[in-house]
Amino acid sequence: MGSTVSGVGTRAEVMAALHDASARFIELAAAVTPSDAARPVPPLEWTVGETIGHVLTVIRRGYRDPRRSATPEETAGLNQICLDELEERDPAALAELLRADVHTALDLVYPKIADDRVFPFHGGVETTMTPALHVVLGEFLIHGYDVARALDQPWEISEADAHLMVPGELMGAWLRADAPDERYELRLGEHEPIGFAIHDGTLVVGDAAALVAGDVGVVAMPTLEMVLTFYGRIPAEDPVLQRLLSRFVPS
What we know:
The protein has about 250 residues and is of the alpha+beta class. Helices cover about 45% and strands about 10% of the residues. Strand 1 (about 120) and strand 2 form a beta hairpin.
């Protein structure tokens, strides 16, 4: 994920979606009962309460906790360390903590960070603000999906939001070190095709992907289906997508 480009959409578009997704996630969390907080959240190894707590730790690492993983393989471990350090598990209390931290991050801190400011991200890479916002948006939307599914409740991910979660170059923070050079093309819904390539251990997205030699593996499917598959929420049936997913470290 070491690039200033990641995902589809402008910073303003991602921020608008992030405000909406975080508000919906907080509302979902606030309604969780203590007994429902103990429900498991497949495919994760966490409960509903722990999943909500994880999202809180992600927001805090976005503006007050500077810890970052040095390699893709260390990211999941750091996630667990941060969650274990968080003593609160009551969903109503977590929702209020989230409300305060989301306000601080989205309304007070993030607007002050210039588009071209480079800072450390996970996996031993660096990034800028807009790519990082795409990842944070994914945390709220995907874990909202997780929690709602565990509670047998609906959770909408619109086509526009799904498109904003299409993996960008910052997903290179989860790229396996031994991933070979390859080219792909994502044909998602009615959107323009997106070039996607691995080159010299980095992820290249967009027009630059065409410069990578080799045959092009085509992934053609609805946008949300691709996103949920990429995040491991539904199984990959397309063999090209299966190959692409094998190049990343699960987190």
